[in-house]
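[READ THE FOLD]
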Amino acid sequence: MTAAMRAALALFLAAAAPVSAETPAPETGAPFEASYEVYIGGLKVGALTLGVERGGARYAASARMEAAGLASWLFPGAAEAEAFGADTPRGLAPEAFVADGRFGDAAQRVEMDFGATGLALAAEPPLRARDYDADLAAMGDALDPLSAAVAALAPAPAAAVCDRTLSVFDSRRRFDLLLGPAVESGGTLRCEGRFRRVAGYKDKHLRQPDQPFTAWFSVNQDGAATLMRAQAPTDFGHAVAVRRSATGL
């Protein structure tokens, strides 16, 4: 995955907050579909489309991310993913995740199975072993990236989108996203957050300070909030994710 697309994915997930046990997500018959664009330093570098269906205590999601603008010329690539699992009063419980990526001439397929005996990971071609790889047995209740995106981007009660922590495992790295309390302004919620590396990183990266980000959520007349914008500083200027369209709100 290119650096630009990794930054784009991290930015979308940086706005993620799981729905709390006290405030379960509303079930909707209509699927949620949305599209987003990502900019770094004012230049468009990526686009994401997300589709989510929830009902009968289940969820299923699909997503496509691709390089865009100048990045598509310099670092051509795209990735598609699917995930499904249980939609419980305590939050999402993923059962399976699969992602297919193409970056230049290279292709990668990753599958994660959240079975009763723990997380199983398979990849083709196989992932290169590293002495700082994350321990699969220690992943606990970490979500896969797409399930985390569902928790972040699909409509959720406004009281549940800020002031909490989300654990994510992307098949190589385990990280936490910590969001502070919501600040309301004109029907919009703003959350200040931090990206914290946990496992699967070199020691020198684990010692780096948490990375800040800001997320903004729009709130509809029924009190459901959806991510409309996320922003984080980078060495190349601010990375900004903006929602361009959405149905099923």
Remarks:
- Residues 1-8, 14-28 have pLDDT under 50 and may be disordered.
- The chain is about 10% helix and 55% strand.
